[in-house]
Fold this protein.
Amino acid sequence: MSTPFFESHELTKDFGGLRAVNGLSFHVNEGEIFGLIGPNGSGKTTVFNLIGGYYPITSGSLRFQGTTLNSLPTWKICKLGIGRTFQVMKPLRRMTVLENVMTAAFNRTDVIAESRKKALEVLEFCGLAHRKDMTAKGLPIGYRKRLEIARALATEPKLLLLDETMAGLTPQEQAEGVTLIRKIRDSGITIIIVEHIMRVIMSLCDRILCINYGQRIAEGSPQEVANHPAVIEAYLGKE
Ligand SMILES: Nc1ncnc2c1ncn2[C@@H]1O[C@H](COP(=O)(O)OP(=O)(O)OP(=O)(O)O)[C@@H](O)[C@H]1O
């Protein structure tokens, strides 16, 4: 059997007495857009933080292209080719949009001219080139979300983790975000997306995993997951 592109095996994370992620196993195929959904507090961001190396894993394992990620530092995980955005955006507020993306591009180069070239390419790709000289703190939310994506792309990921990149956007901005995410996938980058806006998840994802209390409750095509009784119950409660 070939090695899965990305694999979580029995992933578990405890915060003191709270088990935030509980024996979670799933895999992601290369080229997929894989959705991770679940009610508030179900463990989605914690899964991203474990993949990115921000928290130590309590037990279980994570493997990316055959390499075990457990206990690797965040910068090594980034170098391996896993990039991410953050639910709470963290731009360098006083720097320009271009400088923000350049700092991320330094993940792959020490040369200023190269990081600038990469950052300009990424800004063009994300439709942000015309805002390159604005300070990050002056950007409207729609552009700030794009900047988050641009910074993650500048690290040259093979796997991109998108954490609620649509929250707070207008329907028009969401539609543009969907187009951008498809374009990213079409450029050869595999995506795991956490998102509460179901219209976005349903239209983008090839497969979806729904979790609650850190455990799998359903996995399958968008249609299968949306119609799954356990998913409906988790979101709407029992009648
Ligand atoms: N650093 C932490 N210390 C203690 N508990 C935490 C920590 N991070 C998350 N938790 C807890 O772990 C559980 C899962 O939280 P997490 O943020 O992963 O959920 P989520 O599915 O991303 O939620 P949301 O959709 O609201 O963003 C919650 O009960 C949360 O309070």
Observations:
- The radius of gyration is 18 Å.
- Residues 78 and 155 are 7 Å apart (CA to CA).
